[in-house]
Amino acid sequence: MDADAMVQEQIAYYRARAPEYDREYEERDDIAELRPVFEELPVGGDVLELACGTGQWTGSLAARARSVTALDAAPEALAIARERAASPKVAFACADLFEWRPERRYDTVFFAFWLSHVPPGRLAGFWQTVADALAPGGAAVFLDNGPGEAVYEEVLDGEPVPAVRRTLDDGSVHRVVKVFHEPERLVRDLAGWGWTARVRTVGTAFIAGTAVR
């Protein structure tokens, strides 16, 4: 299986997982540690949210933003997000983030638990898309899993990209891309692509970052 096929399997997984997705937020107390961290991130103005999923962060973004454009590749997740974060400030759209290109610029680009799903070979291109979406003086801000999250995952060997195996309630088994970014390495990589970034560990399993260009 090549990286392209893995990405398509990942999209299929999140479409199927949409009804189960919120359970993790309900069952894992450590995710609550990210809420005060989120409040410290420089979010404001017109916000682009990438991979919004079921809208767990969309409403909080809208509370601090002039407008929010929220994208996700899974229409099933978007249906939940539209109900959770219904607001005249928020516009939702279905888009494959590896194919999507911005038609305008935003003051903030936000993504939670998405960067770890970008194959390493596509990482530079993804950050270029983020740069293309940012207005002058804007910032990219993100939350994600860090290396400590690996203990919760079934990490796979021998795949074309770093990946884990996950099983849904119906018993179906899926492979998804999962890169556990080390903060220092990520800062160096971003510097090589023209970004100035700050990335820190939160708790034992998460990272939070801000990048400007």
Fold blueprint:
Elements: H1 3-17, H2 22-27, H3 34-40, E1 46-50, H4 58-64, E2 67-72, H5 75-84, E3 90-94, E4 106-112, H6 123-133, E5 134-145, E6 154-156, E7 163-167, E8 173-177, H7 183-192, E9 196-202, E10 206-212
Parallel strand pairs: 1-2, 1-4, 2-3, 4-5
Antiparallel strand pairs: 5-10, 6-7, 7-8, 9-10
Keywords: Methyltransferase, Transferase
Pfam family, one: Methyltransf_25
Domain Methyltransferase: 47-138
Describe the protein in words:
The chain contains seven helices and ten strands. α5 links the parallel β2 and β3 (90-94). The model has no long low-confidence stretch (mean pLDDT 96). The chain has 213 residues and is of the alpha/beta class. Helices cover 31% and strands 29% of the residues. The chain has helices at residues 3-17, 22-27, 34-40, 58-64, 75-84, 123-133, 183-192; strands at 46-50, 67-72, 90-94, 106-112, 134-145, 154-156, 163-167, 173-177, 196-202, 206-212. The chain has one domain: 3-Layer(aba) Sandwich (Rossmann fold), CATH 3.40.50.
